[in-house]
Amino acid sequence: MALESEIARWSGFAKVLRKSHRESFDELMDISRSFASAGGNATNPILFEPFVISILLGQQERIRKLEKELQAIKPDPPANTTNQEGLVFYKR
User: Fold this and answer.
1) What distance in Å separates the CA atoms of residue 14 and residue 26, rounded to the nearest whole number?
2) Count of Cβ atoms closer than 10 Å to residue 26 Cβ
3) At what angle do helices 48-73 and 2-9 cross, to 10 degrees?
4) How far is CA 1 from CA 16, 18, 33, 40, in A?
5) What whole-number distance in Å separates Cα of residue 47 and Cα of residue 2?
6) What is the model's pLDDT at position 42?
7) What contacts 27, CB < 8 A, 6 or more positions away?
8) Are 3 and 33 in contact (CB under 8 A)?
9) Distance from CA of residue 26 to its chain's centroid?
10) What are 27-38's pLDDT values in tens digits?
11) 79-92: per-residue pLDDT in tens?
């Protein structure tokens, strides 16, 4: 309930965004909703902080998933390769 109140406070901001940005904004709000119970357990009286952390956590999960998918389709470079400029790339 408190989260929905915080999201409602941002409605004026969302209204002036371009459509693509508003869609991204709505996705971020959905991410924050998915972590609402965890945010409710935070011992922080400032609602905005768990709200933002929830969004960051959702974004980090998405980044990790995309990195795993990328690694699955991208071949590993040979160990310690050198490019045309003479830069050495080390395999992790």
Assistant:
1) 8
2) 13
3) 80
4) 24, 27, 10, 10
5) 8
6) 67
7) none
8) yes
9) 13
10) 988 888 888 877
11) 666 666 666 666 65
Using the CB atoms, write b or e for 32-45: b if 16+ within 10 Å.
bbebbeebeeeeee
- pTM beyond 0.70: no
Residue 10 corresponds to which tokens in the numbers above?
């941002």
DSSP labels for the chain? -HHHHHHHHTHHHHHTS-HHHHHHHHHHHHHHHHTHHHHHT---S-THHHHHHHHHHHHHHHHHHHHHHHHHHSPPPPTTEE-TT--EE---
Backbone angle region of 40, left / alpha / beta, with phi > 0 → left and psi within -120 to 50 → alpha: alpha
Q: CA-to-CA distance for 40 and 33, rounded, in angstroms?
A: 11
